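Issue: ligand-bound run for MRU - logging full I/O for the record.

Environment: standard queue, default settings, no custom constraints.

Inputs:
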Amino acid sequence: MKVGKQHYRSIWFNEDTNRVQIIDQRWLPHEFRVVDLITRADFADAIRDMWVRGAPLIGATAAHGVAEVMKADPSDASLDETWEVLHETRPTAINLRWALDDMRNLLRDTPVAERGAVAHARALEICDEDVESNRMIGVHGLEIIRKIAAQKKPGEVVNILTHCNAGWLATVDWGTATSPMYHAVAAGIPVHIWVDETRPRNQGALLTSWEMNSHDIPHHLIVDNAGGHLMQHGRVDLVIVGTDRTTAHGDVCNKIGTYLKALAAQDNGVPFYVALPSPTIDWTVKDGVAEIPIEERTGTEVTHVQGKLADGTVTEVQISPDGTPGGNPAFDVTPRRLVTGLITERGVCEASPEGLAALFPERVLD
Ligand code: MRU
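Outputs:
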């Protein structure tokens, strides 16, 4: 999507320098920095320390990481070690394991001498597939927004609430939750987005707001606790969020706080949709609450916040008393009963084993 007037993806291969490049998201929106990822350690650091984040982008970065390592050392040992090193960086987003498995399965059947080239081509393909899946999520999600718009008086906007950043910065391009929004704007449907700030790391405040600004999409940044109030007063027409892992039975794991939004949405009769490309479905897991590992991040993400001073310096300040420890579960699980529908690249389905199986009949479920 656009940064100023220029089109960017969140990760790309620079043919001039022969380097993988990313937008270093730790500095957004205050500074736009592009960095090269070269070694296996660079890729692992970038995922673990959230220079890149968002389930689909984590997967795409891991795929490129495998490819870069294969160019230098295409041995079986290096392939297996790279799978392990990258896999342990973040535990919840299933796209990471999906991409690593995809690359390793392909490369194991590839002669060692060809592995670098084959891995490079597949990493690029994984990125292109993500872009196309997200575009199709937008095409299908647009129809949901169109139906809501049709029930409104002419000129009335459709108010959509979103949580965390499931925008283009969380994917290779388009975003998942945001793709229907971009498509609605292109179709001439007036939308307004309520952007949850998303404590503790403020992905909504820092990233989604920046994406909305860059595309002139009307929006307001709200505190995480405002959503329920806005829903009670009829100021939210639908919720669209992303997901880091959705089970074969339709439970949705996403950024901490998503579950509370789903509860408020159900209490107020507000449709609650989840947008996801199919690599985010974990076909091996049924019960999300019991089975999905939830990442626990450092407490300093809770006790400290980053922001920009009046002189433009980006800095971090402590917001709690000295010595107060922060507790920081990074994700939660929304049970499928609270989910109105899943918006995938193949269409919209019920959040249930039957709904998912109808869209993905090639997947064998227990
Ligand atoms: O911790 P993050 O920033 O990687 O978490 C991201 C999210 O929770 C997103 O909502 C999810 O990955 C979906 S991205 C299309």
